[in-house]
């Protein structure tokens, strides 16, 4: 008979000083070959994106494959995809903090970083779609010389502006505050004057006083409590971009929870991918253990199953609701010209995550890596299917068309991945990738619990 | 203002807790504790008053919510009433999402700002560092000069303090 053991979240019970050494090491030593190779690849992808974005801004968004029927496709797909990625970071850092899940401690820093970079990638797409990105500030309600002509507060697109900006600012605040004690540690370890100056400025005079720690933990709980409804509202508002329209396939009340579940699911897919690579490239297997991967895989399984349930519920409603237009859209998704995209989505989002019921797969990085990639592919296609198949055959058969992305659009998507991974690689090189102070408290409590 | 302090350092959290417990039993007030991570259960001794940060966040949230609704009503109803698709000018329900976001934003920034200001964590601040290593693996306990009596020193020596120094504290 096997006994259930509480997993040990830090392997080898390292002393506190060792933890600091391990987390500060990537900042001081020369990066390894694998890091340089990853950076070269992602910077190349970023360069492709820079070229494509420059070209389409100079020429106009006629360089995209959009037409009169499908006026919204690749850019909004990518926007929703990237926003969704970010949600896992907030779930790990905020919701799991409120639920007192100690296993989040060694992964929350990198997950929050992922959130911020994903939101940056997402924000790129609506700004490019404006066509004249230098006028992007027109979406803000500021007193202007045009009346003042104010923004339309009844539009979900404007709700998005506020939701995304709030999400970015609150995530950045949470991330920076979380790093304060670690900046202080790096300041006290610094040997070169430049590092002393940089980390001295970043740590704002942190001295580890208990009075500060007590307030700091209160503030962390407050921010976590505020970030939790925020993250749910952000993707709900994104889903309202679609749900408040009257288009069959979009006009459903299930969209907000369905989008939030999908966002967390795709986000955990990305966290798994990033952490499997990071723990290997940066040699952090001791801190990001197989048990961490196991827990994340379990959440992926849960949210993946919620997504599958939402698909089933949408189909049931389309059939049971008796609305012929709605029913047509769903049949067209499954057997129409974009059926390949629909079935890619179903395989990746409904079937693939069910592998995670097996403990052996959850504990194997080699098996989780392809699964996490497939999850991201599936969730990208989910947004593509929702957006393009609903638009391309709407009420008027005379306006039915096909949409296909141009190379410029694909290049922009490649570029957004380049931006994301470049930011993340620079983060693991120049900032503490694991919250040293949290891991120290965890290590101390584990030592005392098992001693 | 500089106050003289007596600082004792420890190698581990249990040693620190032990010292705090013994000092409290003897009625010696403890000025502060310095640690690389938050040591729980000391609030009763060191910071007995409940933090007012939640109150600050609540005020920030209320201000954000009220400000957002006021902004939306002023812009969409009073200053330039624009008919958008025949919807009522004061379409209050449609104003909720933005008011919600600004509530969260204002509450979060107030909480973070209040933490930084109250703890004097501001750009350009230098740490009132008492002893090296408290951000790394050292735990320290500080007594005010007048409380660092002979008796207090005897207790600290008895509970595995690694070092004891007289220091000046600028806060």
Structure write-up:
The complex is a heterodimer of chains A (451) and B (171). Chain A is built from 15 helices and no strands. With 451 residues, chain A is mostly helical. The mean pLDDT of chain A is 90. Chain B is rod-shaped, with a radius of gyration of 25 Å. Chain B contains five helices and four strands. Chain B is 47% helix and 14% strand. Chain B has 171 residues and is of the alpha+beta class. Chains A and B meet through helix 1, helix 5, helix 7 and helix 15 of A and strand 2, helix 3 and helix 4 of B.
Question: CA-to-CA gap between the ends of chain B?
Answer: 7 Å
Succession of helices and strands of chain A: HHHHHHHHHHHHHHH
- Find the structural class of chain B using helix and strand composition: alpha+beta
Mean pLDDT of chain B: 84
Any idea what the shape of chain B is?
A: rod-shaped
Radius of gyration of chain A: 23 Å
Query: How many H/I helical runs of chain B?
Result: 5
What is the number of E strands of chain A?
A: 0
Shape of chain A: globular
Q: Biggest chain pair contact, residues each?
A: A-B, 66 and 67 residues
Mean pLDDT of chain A: 90
What kind of assembly state do the chains in view correspond to?
heterodimer
Low-confidence stretches of chain A: none
Number of strands of chain B: 4
**In order across it, which strands form the biggest sheet of chain B?**
2-3-1-4
């Amino acid at each position: 008979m096997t006994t259930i053991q509480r997993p040990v979240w830090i392997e080898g019970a390292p002393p506190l000083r060792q933890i600091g050494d391990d987390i500060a090491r990537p900042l001081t030593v020369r990066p390894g070959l694998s890091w340089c190779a990853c950076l070269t690849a992602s910077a190349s992808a970023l360069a492709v994106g820079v070229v494509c974005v420059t070209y389409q801004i100079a020429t106009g968004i006629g360089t995209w494959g959009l037409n009169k029927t499908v006026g919204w496709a690749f850019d909004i797909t990518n926007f929703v995809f990237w926003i969704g990625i970010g949600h896992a970071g907030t779930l790990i850092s905020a919701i799991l903090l409120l639920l007192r899940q100690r296993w989040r401690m060694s992964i929350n820093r990198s997950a929050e970083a992922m959130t911020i970079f994903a939101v940056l990638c997402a924000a790129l797409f609506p700004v490019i779609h404006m066509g004249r990105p230098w006028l992007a500030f027109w979406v803000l309600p500021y007193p202007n010389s045009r009346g003042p002509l104010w923004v339309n507060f009844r539009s979900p697109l404007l709700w998005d502006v506020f939701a995304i900006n709030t999400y970015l600012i609150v995530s950045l605040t949470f991330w920076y505050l979380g790093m304060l004690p670690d900046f202080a540690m790096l300041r006290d370890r610094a040997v070169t004057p430049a590092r002393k100056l940089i980390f001295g400025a970043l740590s704002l005079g942190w001295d580890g006083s208990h009075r500060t720690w007590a307030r700091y933990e209160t503030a962390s709980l407050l921010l976590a409590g505020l970030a939790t409804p925020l993250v749910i509202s952000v993707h709900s508002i994104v889903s309202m971009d679609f749900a408040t329209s009257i288009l069959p396939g979009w006009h459903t009340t299930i969209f907000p929870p369905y989008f939030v579940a999908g966002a967390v699911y795709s986000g955990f897919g990305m966290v798994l991918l990033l952490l499997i690579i990071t723990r290997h490239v940066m040699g952090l297997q001791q801190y990001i253990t197989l048990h961490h991967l196991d827990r994340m895989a379990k959440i992926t399984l849960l949210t993946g199953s919620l997504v599958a349930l939402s698909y089933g519920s949408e189909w049931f409603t389309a059939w049971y609701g008796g609305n012929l237009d709605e029913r047509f859209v769903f049949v067209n998704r499954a057997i129409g010209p974009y059926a390949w995209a629909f079935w890619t989505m179903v395989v990746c989002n409904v079937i693939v995550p069910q592998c995670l019921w097996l403990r052996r797969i959850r504990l194997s990085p080699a098996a989780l890596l392809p699964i996490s990639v497939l999850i991201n592919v599936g969730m990208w296609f989910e947004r593509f299917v929702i957006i393009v198949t609903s638009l391309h055959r709407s009420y008027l058969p005379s306006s039915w068309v096909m949409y296909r992305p141009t190379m410029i659009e694909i290049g922009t998507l490649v570029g957004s991945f380049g931006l994301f991974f470049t930011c993340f690689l620079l983060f693991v090189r120049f900032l503490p990738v694991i919250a040293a102070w949290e891991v120290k408290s965890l290590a101390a409590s584990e030592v005392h619990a098992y001693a | 203002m500089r106050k003289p302090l007596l600082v004792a350092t420890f190698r581990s959290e249990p040693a620190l807790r032990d010292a705090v417990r013994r000092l409290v039993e003897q009625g010696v007030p403890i000025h502060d504790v310095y640690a690389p991570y938050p040591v729980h259960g000391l609030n009763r001794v060191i910071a007995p008053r409940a933090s007012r940060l939640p109150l600050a966040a609540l005020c920030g949230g209320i201000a954000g919510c009220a400000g957002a609704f006021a902004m939306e009503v002023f812009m969409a109803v009073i200053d330039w009433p624009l008919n958008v698709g025949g919807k009522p000018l004061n379409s209050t329900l449609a104003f909720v999402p933005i008011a919600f976001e600004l509530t969260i934003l204002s509450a979060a920034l107030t909480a973070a700002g209040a933490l930084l200001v109250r703890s004097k964590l501001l750009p350009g601040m230098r740490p009132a560092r008492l002893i090296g290593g408290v951000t790394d693996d050292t735990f320290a306990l500080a007594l005010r000069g007048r409380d660092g009596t002979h008796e207090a020193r005897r207790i600290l020596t008895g509970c595995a303090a690694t070092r004891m120094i007289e220091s000046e504290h600028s806060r």
